[in-house]
Design goal:
Length: about 270
C-alpha cells in the first residue's frame, strides 16, 4: 500500500533531495514524502481509492506534476518523474569531478601575419570541478596549467613563447583559473565567471561553457564532456611583445581565442586505466 515513485534528471540521474506532495481532487494535501539517496520514494501511507495529483519539487529544479490513480489496493505507482534544471540548463550529477588530461585539450589560437592562425596547446595541466548539489550556480572550477608545456608544433617558436617576451615561464611557471560564479546561458549552456592568473597578472575572465553530455566509460567510471571558449586580450596580461611588419601589420594578433575540450571523471582523482 502507499505510493512509489522515482525522481530523475533528464540524464537519468537520481535526485536525492526531491520532495513528493500528493493532493486529492479538492486540493487537500494527503501525503508528503522525501526521496532517498537513489531518488526513490516509498511511502506506506494508506490512500483511499480515487484520483490524486502528485507534485515533485527539488531545489535547483523546475517542479513537475503527475496524476495518480489509486485502486482498491490502496497503492499508487507513479513511475519515473523527470525534473529539469531550473532555467532549462543541465549539468552532470552533483559532487566532485576530475579533469582527465589524457582526453582533454587546453588550446589557444592567435592570428599570424593578419592572414592566418597559429594554434597551440598546453600539455601539462590539472583541473577539478565541483557540481553543487542544491544551488548549481555555486558549482566551482579550478585549473592549474604549467606554462612551459606550451606546444605549437615548432620548437623555435615554443622556446620564444616560453621566454620573457611572452609567458616568462621562469618567473611565472603556472597559469591558474578559479571560478567565482556560474550563471545559465541557455539549454545546456553556462557562463563560468572566474579569475585567470597569467604572466603575473590576475584578470576576470568568463568562459562560455557547453555541457555535451554524461555517460559511462569502458573502465567502470562516469564521464562528462564539456566545451568552453573565451577571448583574451594580450595587453590585459602585459603580453605586449610584437613585431610590426613593413605593411604595418602585427606579426602576432593582439587577441587570443581560448578553446577547451574537456572530459571529466566522476570522483576525486583519476582511475588507473
Amino acid at each position: 500500500m502507499g505510493l512509489t515513485a522515482k525522481v530523475r534528471t533528464r540524464d537519468g540521474w537520481a535526485v536525492s533531495h526531491a520532495v513528493v506532495t500528493v493532493t486529492d481532487m479538492s486540493g487537500t494535501q494527503v501525503l508528503r514524502a522525501e526521496a532517498d539517496e537513489e531518488g526513490a520514494v516509498r511511502d506506506t501511507t494508506d490512500l483511499a481509492p480515487g484520483a490524486y495529483t502528485v507534485i515533485v519539487t527539488a531545489v535547483g529544479y523546475a517542479p513537475a506534476a503527475a496524476s495518480a490513480l489509486v485502486t482498491g489496493s490502496g497503492r499508487a505507482e507513479v513511475g519515473t518523474v523527470t525534473l529539469a534544471r531550473q532555467g532549462g540548463s543541465e549539468l552532470p550529477p552533483p559532487g566532485p569531478w576530475t579533469v582527465d588530461p589524457a582526453h582533454s585539450t587546453v588550446g589557444a589560437v592567435a592570428r599570424h601575419l593578419g592572414i592566418s592562425s597559429v594554434r597551440g596547446r598546453f600539455t601539462d595541466f590539472t583541473a577539478s570541478i565541483e557540481v553543487a548539489p542544491d544551488d548549481v550556480t555555486e558549482s566551482r572550477v579550478e585549473a592549474v596549467i604549467r606554462a612551459a608545456s606550451i606546444d605549437t608544433g615548432n620548437a623555435m617558436r615554443d622556446t620564444h613563447l616560453r621566454s620573457a617576451d611572452f609567458l616568462d615561464v621562469e618567473n611565472h611557471p603556472e597559469i591558474t583559473y578559479r571560478s567565482t560564479g556560474l550563471s545559465p546561458a541557455g539549454p545546456d549552456r553556462w557562463t563560468v565567471h572566474g579569475e585567470l592568473s597569467l604572466h603575473g597578472v590576475v584578470r576576470p575572465v568568463d568562459l562560455d561553457l557547453a555541457h555535451l553530455g554524461t555517460g559511462a566509460d569502458p573502465w567502470g567510471g562516469t564521464r562528462a564532456a564539456f566545451r568552453a571558449t573565451a577571448e583574451l586580450h594580450r595587453d590585459d596580461f602585459a603580453l605586449r611583445y610584437n613585431q610590426i611588419l613593413q605593411a604595418g601589420i602585427a606579426a602576432v594578433g593582439t587577441t587570443l581565442k581560448v578553446e577547451l575540450d574537456i572530459q571529466a571523471v566522476r570522483g576525486e582523482g583519476l582511475p588507473a586505466v
